[in-house]
Amino acid sequence: MRIVSLAGGIGGARFLRGLRAAAPDAEITVIGNTGDDITLFGLRVCPDLDTVMYTLGGGINPEQGWGRDGESHVVKSELAAYGVEPQWFGLGDKDFATHIVRTQMLGAGYPLSAVTEALSVRWNPGVRLIPMTDDRAETHVVIEDDQGRRAIHFQEWWVRLRASVPARQIVLVGAEDAKPAPGVIEAIRDADVVVLPPSNPVVSIGTILQIPGIRDALEQKVVVGVSPIIGGAPVRGMADACLTAIGVETTAQAVLELYGSRLLDGWLVAEQDAGVALDGVRVQARPLLMTDLDATTDIARAALELAR
Asked: Do 263 and 219 meet the contact criterion of CB atoms below 8 Å apart?
């Protein structure tokens, strides 16, 4: 069986562990969000790609869900001592090595997809990980504060401000000129099923869908999604702030309607959201908390069964 999954962030990475366990013999391709990517200290950082890679490769910090396990922060402290900004984004020493290798390879002319493939060799994640695009497409957020109305990088809004300043607009800058990375459209076309994990529907899954050609290809396939909203609240993170910015309620129903019946064929919701419905989409209610690997595997297995 060939499975494609769109993923971004901690929820997507953790779900993929369950998906891999639920379908151990399947060929799984993961299309990763790169809208969160940012250049810091001269290094190209790809948070969502790295979170998937570290999580599936056994190197993630299990408590945080991001960054490396057993991490130290000597370099960060030294940069702060020099007064180098930004100090609000905490890269660890082990993590710096990944970004140095990536930046060197990009500087040598390798596209991000080739760099990601090379980095994945070390981690052996058990899936094929492809960035959504090799082109630069970054998520920026329009806010209004005491400095007036301005646009800042998504990471500054998410990490430094903790989404505490309401977003007036969320824009994937460069999306209209971006192309899917090599292998993305082919993987979707060859897939038996596509699974959307409980990732942020605006700045994780939503950004991937904005790359021209990806949503059109997905609409030709069987697509099952797992709701990131349980009982009117995000399972993790600040998806509610992102949904508010685009005028969408923080409910499983609203996210289902955001994706729409042209994209989704099936939608897994939590038991407390059992009344959710949309013409053309089969909805199934079940426990959705990814409390451990067994529970996550059960959720992934339910998604695959719904697809069948």
From this structure: yes
Q: Are 170 and 68 in contact (CB under 8 A)?
A: no
**Cα–Cα nearest to 226, from 170, 165, 305:** 305
Instruction: Give the distance, in angstroms, between the CA of residue 203 and the centroid of all CA atoms in the same chain.
Output: 8
Peptide bond into 86 cis (omega under 30): yes
| Nearest Cα to Cα of residue 248 among 194, 203, 197, 196 | 203
Query: Nearest to residue 139, comparing CAs of 64, 46, 229?
Result: 46
Residue 151 near residue 128, CB atoms below 8 Å: no
The pTM for the full model equals: 0.95
3-state secondary structure of 150: strand
- For 43, other C-beta atoms within 10 Å of its C-beta total 18
pLDDT tens by residue, 59-94: 999 988 999 999 999 999 999 999 999 999 989 999
Closest CA to 145 of 168, 178, 170: 168
Can you read off the two tokens belonging to residue 7?
Answer: 């993923």
Distance CA 66, CA 54 (A): 8
Q: What is the distance between the alpha carbons of residues 122 and 53, in angstroms, rounded to a whole number?
A: 9
Q: How many CB atoms lie within 10 A of CB 61?
A: 17
Helix (H, G, I), strand (E, B) or coil at 21: helix
Residue 288 — left, alpha, or beta (φ > 0 → left; ψ -120 to 50 → alpha)? Answer: alpha
